[in-house]
Amino acid sequence: MLARVPSGVPTCCNKDFMKSQDNCIFCKIVAGQIPSSKVYEDDDLLAFHDLHPKAPVHFLVIPKSHIDSLAECGPGDADVLARMMLKVPELARLAGCNNGFRTVINTGTDGGQEVFHLDLHVLGGPRDRWKSPAF
Known about the structure:
alpha+beta
């Protein structure tokens, strides 16, 4: 169950509350305070399975350092963004995505972002087994 802000809105849906690293669910996963099913981890990145998968393969790749969203990235984030993008094909292949995969970065409230920590979704597997809508 998600922690709740006083208004009763889940923290994942409250942008102002989630902008703080102290309240960020993904920062808590990085810190080991919330368990996850890890796909990959190194000094800068963490990949883990989505709790509500939209496809047979559905995992997220996040930077360990807190970045609110893609819209908040600047030139100083180029290295971590490149590492995220370059790691995805390798992880997708290891997950069995031999016929392709989809990458999605939801950005901002109108872009469907629910957790305000940059995350890259990787979806794959037979298309007839994807849940609709899958973004």
